[in-house]
Amino acid sequence: MVIGAAAGWLLWLAGALMIGLSLLVGARRSIGNSLLASLVAIAGGGFLLLHPTAGALAVSLLVAAVLIVDGALELALALDLRPLRVWRWLIASAMASGLAAVAVLSGAAAGRSGVPGL
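Above: the chain's sequence. Below: its structure in token form.
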């Protein structure tokens, strides 16, 4: 929940700074787009401040995605190094990454906020 709240504060602050910079430096043609982007950042930050578990869920999904990609790349490397003796360890590491991703995703699906600390 701390991660979600911190992300909300940072996003809100970035949006406020974007508004200030767009008013100071913005060209007349693009000021509408930059103000709209600033308001979206402020709204997203405000949402994360009010609902910090949504930020924790996003972090959980990001961790799961990294674990899945890591496992897939390790599996590809293991199959490439198949004649060597080390390929079994790479397959074991790929399976461990896959199992960790499943554990993170199952905790995220259950709505537990402590999933990134898993």
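The chain is about 80% helix and 0% strand.
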